[in-house]
Amino acid sequence: MPLSNSWGIKMNSPAKPFVSQELTWTPFFSLLKREVQRFLKVAVQTLLAPMINSGLYLLIFGLSLGSRIQISDGTSYLSFLIPGLIMMGCLNNAFSNSSSSVVGSKYGGELEDYKAAPLSSQQIIWAISLGGLFRGLLVGLVTFIVGEAFLYFQNGEFLSIQHPVLLVFFLTVGGLSFAKLGLSAAFWAKSFDHLAAFGTFILMPLIYLGGVFYSLEHLSPFWQTLTQFNPLFYFINGVRYSILGASDVNVWMAFGISLIMLLLFHGFALFSLKGGSFNRW
Amino acid sequence: MIPLKVSNLVKKYGDLEAVKNVSFEIQSGEIFGLLGPNGAGKTSIISSITTIEKPTSGSIELFGGRVERENKAAKAILGVVPQELVNHGFFSAFEVLEFHSGYYGIRSNKKHIEFLLNKLGLWEHRDKKIKQMSGGMKRRLLIAKALVHQPKLLLLDEPTAGVDIELRASLWDFVRELRDSGTTILLTTHYLEEAEELCDRVGVINHGKLIKIGPTKQLIKELTSRQVAIYLKNKLPPCQHINLIKSNAQEKSMLFEISNQTGIGELLAQLKFPMEDIIDIQIQEGRLEDAFVKLLGDKNELTS
Question: Are B25 and B154 members of one domain?
C-alpha cells in the first residue's frame, strides 16, 4: 500500500478540540514512569545480575571466609555483611540506573527531547533520581532476601530488622543521593568510557573502602581516620545500625551526614543540568 | 498574535559566530522556510528556539511569550522535528508517543496517537521497537512525536533529509494539510525544490546572516529571469537582440532571456518575426534555485 493512500484522510483529529494540558505534574510523572519502565524492561541486567552479584559475595565472604573473621560484639560475619551488601547494591544500582539512562538517552538523541519539552530542571532531576531510587530499593530488597536465605542455611535463623523506619530513611536518602550523582556524572560524560572511568576510579574505591566488608576495628589508625572522610561509610553504617542495632558510628551523625550528602548531590545535579550537555553523542 | 518573533539573535560557539544578528517574524498559518547551505546556521536557530542551545544574545518570542529554559507554557505550544533520527532503546513506537504526550502534559492521548499512527502509516508498526524500524519509519515517528500535543507552531529541521521520493511527496502533502488545519510551520531545508513547493515565504541564510526574506513567488520574480524559446518554420533570420542567449539552426529555435518585468509582446515586437513563421513559443519561469544562486553568488556553495 503506497503511503500517500493512507495519508489521504483529512487532517481532522478525533482528539479535537485542543486537549487540555496539565503542565505541573503530568510531565514529571511521565518521565518517572519512563525511568521505571526502562529498567523493568531489562530486568535481567538491572535486577537479576545484582542478585547474582550479592549471592556471590555472600558465598565467598560470608560463608567461606567469614567463619575466620571475628566481630567484637559476637555478631556473625554473615549478619555483619548483609546490611553492607544491601546498601552497596542500593547505591550502586541507583547510580547506574540514572547514569545509564542519561547516557543512553544522549546516545540515542532522546535527551534533547527533555530539554525541548515543558519539563523543568528540578522535574528532570527528581524523576530520574526517583527512578534510580526504585531500582536501588528493589535490589536492596532482593539482596536482603538472598542474605536471609544464606543466613538461615548457615545459622538456622533469620535476621530481624531493629529500626525499620531508619532503614527506609538511609536507603532512600542513599539511593536518591547516588542516583543524583549518577545523573551528574552522565551529564558531564563525553563518552561511555568517560562514565566507566568515573565508576572505576571514584565510585568503586569509595564503596569498597566504605566499610561494606570490614569493621573499623579491623583497620590501622591511619585507615580508620581516612575511612571517616568517606561519605559512604556513614550511609553503610547507617543501614547496618538500622538492621543490627549497632555500628561503627553514631547513628545520628550518620543521619546528618546522609542528609548533607543528599543536598550536596542535588546541588551537583542541578549544576550539571545547567552546565552539562543534553546534546547527542 | 505573532507565532514566532526572533529578534537580533546571535549564537557564538567559541570564536565561531554561527548566527549573526538574525531577526525575522513568522505569520500565523504560513509555512515559512529557512533556506541555506549546510552549516549556514539554520539548526542553530532552531536549537535556540527549542532552548537546546542558549543564544549568546537576542530574544525569541512564541505567541508573545519569551522562550526560556523554564518557560513551560511557551514550550507546550511548540512541536519539534529534529534533523537527526532519535532512538529510544527499549520502547515501542506506541510507548514513545505515550511518554511524549505525557511530557507535554497530556495524560491520556490514545485517540490522537492512534490517529497520528494511522495518518503517518505507522499503525502496523506501533509495537515495533524503534531500533527495528527503517529510517523512513523513524522519520515519520519523529513527526508523530512532534504532533502528539497538537502544537500551534511546528519546527521541521530538514524533514526530508535522506527520505525517498515517494515519502517526500507524501510528507509535503501532510505539511500542507497541517497548515490548512491551522498549524504554523517553520521548516529548514537546503532542497530548493522543497522550499519552492511548500513555503509561502522564505528567508535565505548564509554564513549565519539572513540575507533575504520575502514571499517565495515574489523572491523568484525579483531575482530570476524568464527564458523564452521561439520555434520558427523557416530558417532562422539574422538576429542581434541583446537578450538572445542561444540559437539552434537545426531545431530552428532561438532562446531569449528576459526579465520578469519585460512582456513577451514587447520582446516579439522588438524581434519583428512574421507571425505566420512562428510555430511555438515556450516560456520557462525562473526557479527558486536561480534566485538562490544569484543571492549566494556561487552555486557550488549551496550544494556542497
Answer: yes
Question: Using one digit for the tens of pLDDT, what is the confidence trace for A200-238?
Answer: 999 989 988 998 988 888 888 999 899 999 999 999 999
Tell me, yes or no, if A70 comes closer than 8 A to chain B by beta carbon: no
Backbone angles phi, psi at B215, to 5 degrees: -60, 140
Beta bridge partners of B7: B59
State the total domains in chain B.
Answer: 2
Of A2, A14, A116, the CB nearest to B80: A116
Asked if B293 and B192 touch (Cβ cutoff 8 Å), the reply is: no
- Whole-Å CA distances, B139 to A104, B79, B134, B145: 20, 14, 9, 10
Residues A73-83, mean pLDDT to the nearest whole number: 88
Q: Tell me, yes or no, whether B291 lies in a domain.
A: no
Closest chain A residue to the Cα of B72, Cα to Cα: A118
B164 and B266 in a single domain? The answer is: no
Vertex B60 angle, CA B54 and B62, to 5°: 125
Segments forming the whole domain that contains residue B269: 225-285
**pLDDT over 70 at B300, yes or no:** no
Residues in CB range of A50: below 8 A, 6 or more apart: A89, A92, A93, A139, A142, A143
Judge if B239 and B172 occupy the same domain. no
Substitution target in B47, B52, B157, B185 with the highest count of A β-carbons within 10 Å is: B52
Q: What is the predicted ipTM?
A: 0.86
Tell me how close the Cα of B136 comes to any Cα of chain A, in angstroms: 11
Say if B40 falls within a structural domain: yes
pLDDT at site B294: 82
B158 and B113 in a single domain? The answer is yes
Q: What is the DSSP letter of A218?
A: G
